[in-house]
Design goal:
About 40% of the residues lie in helices and about 20% in strands. The protein has about 250 residues and is an alpha+beta fold. It has two domains: about 130 residues, Jelly Rolls, CATH 2.60.120; about 110 residues, Orthogonal Bundle (Arc Repressor Mutant, subunit A), CATH 1.10.10.60. Strand 4 and strand 5 form a beta hairpin. It holds the Pfam family HTH_18. GO terms for molecular function: DNA-binding transcription factor activity; sequence-specific DNA binding.
């Protein structure tokens, strides 16, 4: 039995690019990379996707996906009615072996002109396995409040800066206590936790662009490479050098 395909696959082979305005699509999107890295942002999160990771972007989600280097992989467009089992927010996922194998098989089958019932069964397995995949920790929440968002964007653009809490409160018109409380309410993290994570994400960008570990450390405001490496390993479970070798220089 043949039916219309609920899945479309676009092969990616593109170079580094600039950010664009946020935009949305009616279908869900899944990025799967074989080489390179993509920096993604939505109106709520910033994150990075590296090889052998999945990025899920739900239907209607305002987003931008910017290659940081030469990228090869696939972009899957998934019909909206099949996305209900997947997360309602964008997320990067670490696929396990069954999920990866199912995905690769779907990619092989998709160019066929007829979408068979057995393909549908395989897609359902993929969707349910994707639901169980482990979310990666490199997602940075962004606040809603306009002043907090301006502050967060400023810290994001200048990761090497280390303004104190009092200076930020004065610049953006908060009391120290209000800034601390509102930022925690809107991001789920303290300002110091958020700033540290923002620095690490910016460091991932630099590593993806083939910067050295020391350049990445100093570029995001660390005074000590060893401290940077220790914090990086605590958050991502591997050293910056291992991350670069494993994901970004495959």
């Amino acid at each position: 039995m043949t039916v219309s395909s609920p899945l479309k696959v676009l092969r990616l082979d593109i170079g580094a690019d600039q950010s664009r305005d946020l935009h949305a699509r009616s279908e869900g999107q899944l990025y799967w990379l074989e080489q390179g890295a993509i920096f993604c942002r939505s109106d709520r999160f910033h994150w990075l996707t590296a090889p052998r990771q999945l990025t899920w972007i739900p239907p209607g989600c305002q987003h931008d996906a910017r290659p940081l280097s030469t990228v090869r992989g696939v972009l899957l467009h998934l019909r909206e009615d099949l996305t209900f089992v997947l997360p309602k927010e964008p997320v990067a996922l670490e696929p396990h072996r069954l999920l990866e194998a199912t995905l690769l098989r779907l990619i092989e089958l998709c160019p066929e002109s007829d979408w068979l019932e057995r393909h549908e069964h395989l897609l359902q397995v993929f969707l349910w396995e994707a639901r169980e995949a482990t979310p990666l920790r490199q997602r940075l929440p962004m606040p809603h409040d306009p002043r907090l968002l301006r502050m967060a964007n400023s810290l994001w653009r200048a990761p090497e800066s280390n303004p104190g809490l009092d200076a930020l409160a004065l610049e953006y018109g908060f009391s120290r206590r209000t800034l601390t409380r509102k930022f925690m309410q809107e991001t789920g993290a303290s300002l110091s936790q958020w700033t540290q994570h923002a620095k690490l994400l910016r460091a991932l960008e630099l590593l993806a662009a083939n910067e050295s570990v020391s350049s990445a450390a100093f570029g995001v405001g660390y005074q000590s490479v060893s401290t940077f490496c220790a914090v990086f390993k605590q958050v991502f479970g591997m050293s910056p050098g291992d991350y670069k070798r494993r994901f970004l220089n495959r």
